[in-house]
Design brief:
single chain, 204 residues, alpha/beta, Nucleotidyltransferase, domain 5, 7 helices
Length: 204
């Protein structure tokens, strides 16, 4: 009999911060950091803790259909959602780590109301002027970070499906820019397109 995976993603951190007086707690996460093509997308989400969608979890542990369902539920119930997007050319120019930080800061700055505390998946950010915790595997611990991971993942996947129409032949709708054997074969046949990160090993 298959063992059921334990549910570890909860609102415990958010409720603890509420008790400490923080009202607008934002989860922040990114998607696309390791891809060969396409943007890095960050999301920041302030959830309404009284209206949490059921089943919030790390986007990587959810099926695509479940991510889509939760994407809609988050958009209907969250207090605020904002995105930050950095394209391939900028990633090549400033390096992926700085691009990730920039996308996250864009998302945070786009939130209304302004958050008074941040829960960030793994990345440490300077000069925010907002207290925060950077949590390793935060998308598996905090519902706010999990919600941000879902918003970022669904947004980026939709972008890559649209890019597949602009640049056919690479299979962006299937691998969404990550380094799969099919993607490697397409690069060998076609060479890189404007979506490819030329600074990444495997692209050139």
């Amino acid at each position: 009999m298959r063992r059921q995976r334990p549910q570890t993603c909860t609102a415990a951190l958010e409720r603890e911060l509420n008790r400490l007086g923080y009202r607008f707690i934002a989860g922040v996460d990114e998607v696309g950091r390791g891809a060969w093509a396409g943007p890095v997308v960050a999301a920041a989400v302030i959830l309404d803790l009284d209206r949490l969608p059921d089943g919030l979890d790390d986007s990587k542990r959810l099926s695509s259909s479940r991510r889509e369902q939760l994407f809609r539920a988050i958009r209907e119930t969250a207090r605020a959602i904002a995105l930050g997007i950095v394209d391939a050319r900028e990633i090549d120019r400033i390096h992926i780590l700085r691009a990730t930080e920039f996308a996250m800061k864009q998302a945070i700055q786009g939130l209304r109301p302004r958050p008074d505390f941040l829960l960030i998946d793994a990345v440490k950010l300077d000069d925010l002027g907002i207290p925060y915790r950077a949590l390793i595997r935060g998308d598996q611990i905090s519902v706010s970070i999990a919600a941000a991971s879902i918003i970022a993942k669904v947004t980026r996947d939709r972008l890559m499906r649209e890019y597949d129409k602009l640049y056919p032949g690479y299979g962006f709708a299937q691998h969404v820019g990550y380094g799969t054997p099919a993607h490697r074969d397409a690069l060998a046949r076609l060479g890189p397109c404007p979506l490819h990160r030329l600074s990444f090993r495997g692209v050139r």
